[in-house]
């Protein structure tokens, strides 16, 4: 719960919202006639694509853009591709979107069903990437990664968000199956469940390896869980030994193997302009305006739609934005009530430095980032020590969008690093 307005003069005392004691079942949003799927790969007009307008796809069919594509999207419905077009996402990332016209009769592609009796990380990564909760299957399947511990997270990572807590409460009696399945497919036996202190008292979790997380923001962020509960300090740039898996992702894996088919219904908590919450399940690929219309949430020109929470979320630029595997929360803010970013210069008030849990010199960092000096920001101002909490933006007197600059800076650094690696490989 936010105890004060977004921009204020005192240090914030922020408590995360708790899920309702007796939550209602989510409202199921019907599958719409048109779905939108995002492929995390740019469209290249010179190359011959594997898909074209008019192609028919089955439910559960994996869609690759090119012969050598490493990423894929799984079709949540049977239908026909009616459009393929480029799209620029956050931080200028080039991607591709597909529009699917949904068939009335749904045929399910059977390749995964044949493998579901023998769960392993290879078939999970091959068929189940992008299921609700977005399990990090690619990373788990990568032999370069050396995870030795898994934390299933039933805590939400921003204010106002309660979806993970809801999923954990709803499927508490099945969490042991998720633990067993994850052990089986990853070979990792050290599996804990992160949950709020209050929920950890429930008898259904007796005997499980629990991480009891306090309800103050920022205790639920992975670097804080590692430092406070696992005794592993956050070291910038070091590969993590611990793999964090959202509880919905773990439960989606269980369902997919038990039902012998991929699953697509994502739980989302919607918070409207009055603060009213509605929980829904919507098929991945459903345009978000379909959800708003169905549950009676009105939106107007200039309103802000936030995917995620108020501190770490990102803005949706269109009501046609599709439901994504990791979309836990949608917040609609009325235009007059949205805290606006400014282009005023830093006045050196020092609030960002005081509040930063990583002791980053944010007032200096922001100067490098504003100038696009990303490597210098990392070398001189500890950009990579930032744990992405968003608190600096929250307290900034000058309303500088510091957190957005930080994310852009990290993204650009990663891009530079991968370009250097590619060049080195080519040499
Ligand atoms: S988001 Fe800001 S306050 Fe949070 S760790 Fe990063 S620099 Fe520090
Ligand atoms: S960046 Fe914002 S919070 Fe930080 S010192 Fe400057 S004005 Fe103050």
Automatic annotation (TrEMBL):
One of its GO terms (molecular function) is 4 iron, 4 sulfur cluster binding. PROSITE patterns: 4FE4S_FER_1, 4FE4S_FER_2. Residues 337-367 form the 4Fe-4S ferredoxin-type domain. Keywords: Iron, Iron-sulfur, Metal-binding. InterPro entries: 4Fe4S_Fe-S-bd, 4Fe4S_Fe_S_CS, Ion_transpt_RnfC/RsxC, RnfC_N. This is RnfC2. GO terms for cellular component: membrane.
């Amino acid at each position: 719960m936010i105890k004060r307005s977004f921009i204020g003069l005192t240090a914030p005392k922020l408590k995360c919202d708790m899920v309702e004691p007796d939550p209602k079942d989510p409202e199921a949003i019907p599958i719409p006639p048109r779905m939108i799927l995002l492929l995390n790969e740019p469209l290249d007009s010179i190359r011959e694509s594997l898909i074209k307008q008019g192609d028919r796809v089955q439910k559960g069919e994996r869609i690759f853009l090119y012969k050598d594509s490493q990423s894929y999207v799984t079709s949540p419905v049977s239908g026909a591709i009616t459009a393929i077009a480029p799209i620029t996402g956050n931080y200028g990332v080039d991607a591709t979107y597909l529009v699917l016209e949904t068939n009335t009769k749904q045929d399910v592609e059977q390749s995964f069903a044949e493998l579901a009796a023998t769960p392993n990380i290879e078939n999970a990564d091959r068929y189940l990437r992008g299921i609700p909760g977005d399990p990090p299957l690619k990373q788990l399947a990568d032999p370069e990664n050396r995870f030795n511990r898994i934390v299933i997270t039933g805590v939400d990572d921003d204010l106002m968000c309660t979806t993970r807590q809801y999923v954990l409460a709803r499927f508490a009696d099945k969490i042991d199956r998720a633990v067993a399945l994850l052990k089986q497919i990853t070979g990792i036996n050290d599996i804990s469940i992160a949950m709020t202190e209050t929920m950890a008292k429930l008898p259904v979790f007796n005997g499980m390896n629990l991480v009891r997380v306090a309800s103050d923001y920022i205790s639920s962020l992975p670097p804080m869980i590692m430092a406070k509960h696992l005794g592993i300090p956050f070291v910038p740039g070091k590969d993590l030994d611990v793999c964090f898996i959202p509880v919905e992702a773990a439960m989606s894996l269980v369902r997919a193997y038990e039902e012998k088919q991929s699953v697509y219904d994502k739980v989302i908590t919607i918070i409207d302009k009055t603060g009213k919450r509605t929980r829904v399940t919507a098929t991945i690929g459903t345009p978000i305006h379909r959800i708003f219309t169905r549950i009676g949430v009105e939106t107007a020109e200039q309103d802000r739609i936030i995917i995620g929470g108020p501190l770490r979320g990102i803005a949706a630029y269109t009501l046609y934005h599709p439901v994504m595997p990791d979309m836990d929360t949608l917040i609609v803010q009325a235009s007059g009530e949205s805290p606006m970013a400014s282009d005023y210069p830093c006045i050196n008030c020092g609030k960002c430095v005081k509040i930063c849990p990583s002791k980053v010199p944010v007032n200096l960092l922001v100067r490098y980032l504003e100038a696009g000096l990303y490597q210098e920001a990392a070398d001189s101002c500890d950009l990579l020590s930032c744990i992405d909490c968003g608190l600096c933006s929250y307290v900034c007197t000058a309303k500088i969008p510091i957190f957005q600059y930080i994310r852009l800076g990290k993204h650009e650094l990663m891009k530079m690093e991968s370009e250097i690696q590619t060049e080195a490989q080519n040499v």
